[in-house]
């Protein structure tokens, strides 16, 4: 099978994600069979899946309601101005919000199923307020004006208050109780800088709630919180517990532990003791959903060699069973987990894959793929583009350089502010390590990344221009000053806490802006950008492309009018992936 036909098969293999049960037992989920993620459902009685929405733009989430219906959200062409919709058990959806200027951030469904909580920045684009809406009537009201970004992850057990999570910085989150009928907010978690309190789930008797917390720890743990008290740890492995869902009868907790990037499902009792560890394929779990009777947990799981599918597991500890999913093409490659040394003696964790078939005499050309964030983690996830790159005869290394999450709080802080370029030095160390391997042609190593990973590509090719044979930059930051001027105002405070203040740290941000060193770039670049991107506006890509053209460096620039921060539509993914494959063929395998 040639690479073009394989890519088409990879893109046509649908992913099923984000499962959510409704009260009548039906299971809602998102699936991209038609080219973008839409709402589908599986009946609790079995039978074939049924598609419930058919929009051109992708649906971002779906949440099942007690009456069998659902709430879902979508934006317009990737602009992230999400609107909310009600999908009844039968029939067509209706819009609950209809203000294309406003971001409506999904929150939670009230205990009785009659209301929803969400955030909206209609008052001021930089600040999101807490709102409550009656689903039946559509009547909505602001219950609290808030400064800065936050989320509404849950309701109180009695439905009289919202649990609000502040997020001024990546590794700081405090929980507050906000009365629905007015009144002052109450801080629930004693504040501590660089401590997270996430994913609260209220106990029915009102005595507190389960949550994830990392106070004084390197990793997130399951805890129980009583108002104003320090969280009591219940389950605290030496790895991040990333997800927590409480069973409807409140007798069990389903959690997902991040073990070196791989998700591991565990079922606990309410006191935190492990009662079952159902076996499941090695991969990445994004969402958990308990069945209404509390006897089964459904989750999505993606692998590097297969798109996300739905699995179900029970409290008996039996292996998880495939519930719904597509079969990918045969012969796809998988990751090897490894590490490599860097400049200060640390070992940098990474995933590595080589193509199948006989190795070329001089070794495989390689592509280093850098994740975004920066406070994110490269995971063994489904990537149709990287599978096509491997099929084209190019190996792939995916590092989790310093600053990545999943390896403890201290590791994630190693690239903060003035230490930012240390993470770029880790990329040079990745190149050096690859060049020592017998399987690798050290003269043919390219680099690719998206968003902050796109900045990493530009930084790597300016800081270490002699190393790279080519670069692929998807919507990366070129100039931190213009980024802060043009990014969505709701993001500025959070991003300044990570990267540096655009005024107080102007000198540092100037030094960290690849645009000011664009003359150092030697290798050809491919740049791709969605034109509705509110996070990294097109001006960032335009500036670096103009600089490369002025310096007579080969550059190809692709734009997509109906995409934002990422390429969500199949026809656009096809276009950009085909361009990447042609570009890599010209500069790594020719």
Automatic annotation (TrEMBL):
* One BP annotation, GO: proteolysis
Q: Care to name a GO molecular-function term for this sequence?
A: serine-type endopeptidase activity
Looking at the record, the residues that make up the Peptidase S9 prolyl oligopeptidase catalytic domain are: 385-588
Q: Which domain of life is it from?
A: Bacteria
UniProt entry keywords in alphabetical sequence: Acetylation, Hydrolase, Protease, Serine protease
Q: What does this protein do?
A: This enzyme catalyzes the hydrolysis of the N-terminal peptide bond of an N-acetylated peptide to generate an N-acetylated amino acid and a peptide with a free N-terminus. It preferentially cleaves off Ac-Ala, Ac-Met and Ac-Ser. Also, involved in the degradation of oxidized and glycated proteins.
Entry protein name: Acyl-peptide hydrolase
- The species is Teichococcus deserti
């Amino acid at each position: 099978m040639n690479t073009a036909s394989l890519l088409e098969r990879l893109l046509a293999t649908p992913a099923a994600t984000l499962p959510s049960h409704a009260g009548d037992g039906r299971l809602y989920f998102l699936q991209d069979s038609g080219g973008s993620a839409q709402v589908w459902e599986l009946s609790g009685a079995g039978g074939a899946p049924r598609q419930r929405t058919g929009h051109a733009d992708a649906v971002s989430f779906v949440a099942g309601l007690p009456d069998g219906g659902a709430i879902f959200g979508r934006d317009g062409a990737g602009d992230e101005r999400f609107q909310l919709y009600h999908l009844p058990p039968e029939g067509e959806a209706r819009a609950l919000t209809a203000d294309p200027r406003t971001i409506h951030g999904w929150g939670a469904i009230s205990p009785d199923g009659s209301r929803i909580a969400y955030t909206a920045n209609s008052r001021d684009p930089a600040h999101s307020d807490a709102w409550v809406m009656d689903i039946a009537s559509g009547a909505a009201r602001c219950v609290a004006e808030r400064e800065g970004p936050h989320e509404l992850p849950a309701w109180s057990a009695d439905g009289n208050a919202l649990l609000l999570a502040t997020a001024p910085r990546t590794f700081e989150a405090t929980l507050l109780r906000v009365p629905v009928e007015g009144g002052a907010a109450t801080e629930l978690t004693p504040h501590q800088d660089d401590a997270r309190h996430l994913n609260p789930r209220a106990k029915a008797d009102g005595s507190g709630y389960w949550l994830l917390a990392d106070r004084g720890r390197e990793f997130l743990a399951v805890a129980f919180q009583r108002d104003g008290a320090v969280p009591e740890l219940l389950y605290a492995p030496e790895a991040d517990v990333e997800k927590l869902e409480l069973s409807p009868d409140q007798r069990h907790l389903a959690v997902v532990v991040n073990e070196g990037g791989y998700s591991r499902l565990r079922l606990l009792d309410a006191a935190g003791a492990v009662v079952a560890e159902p076996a499941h394929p090695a991969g990445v779990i994004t969402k958990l959903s308990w069945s209404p009777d509390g006897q089964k947990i459904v989750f999505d799981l993606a692998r590097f060699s297969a798109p996300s599918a739905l699995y179900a597991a029970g409290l008996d500890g039996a292996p998880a069973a495939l519930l719904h999913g597509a079969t990918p093409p045969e012969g796809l490659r998988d990751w090897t987990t490894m590490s490599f040394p860097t400049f200060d003696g640390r070992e940098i964790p990474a995933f590595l894959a080589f193509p199948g078939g006989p190795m070329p005499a001089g070794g495989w050309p390689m592509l280093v793929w850098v994740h975004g964030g920066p406070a994110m983690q490269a995971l063994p996830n489904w990537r149709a583009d990287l599978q096509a790159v491997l099929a084209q005869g190019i190996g792939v290394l995916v590092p989790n350089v310093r600053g990545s999450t999943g390896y403890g709080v201290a590791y994630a802080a190693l690239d903060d502010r003035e230490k930012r370029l240390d993470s770029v030095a880790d990329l040079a160390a990745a190149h050096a390590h690859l060049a020592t391997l017998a399987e690798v042609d050290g003269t043919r190593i390219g680099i690719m990344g998206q968003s902050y990973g796109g900045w990493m590509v530009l930084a790597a090719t300016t800081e270490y221009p002699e190393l790279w044979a080519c670069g692929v930059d998807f919507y990366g930051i070129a100039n931190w000053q213009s980024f802060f001027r043009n990014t969505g105002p709701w993001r500025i405070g959070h991003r300044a806490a990570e990267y540096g203040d655009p005024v107080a740290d102007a000198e540092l941000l100037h030094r960290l802006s690849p645009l000011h060193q664009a003359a150092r770039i030697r290798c050809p670049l491919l740049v791709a950008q969605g034109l509705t991107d509110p996070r990294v506006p097109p001006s960032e890509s335009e500036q670096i492309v103009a600089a490369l053209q002025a310096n007579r460096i080969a550059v190809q620039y692709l734009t997509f009018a109906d995409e934002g921060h990422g390429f969500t539509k199949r026809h656009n993914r096809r276009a950009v992936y085909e361009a990447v494959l042609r570009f890599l063929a010209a500069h790594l395998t020719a």
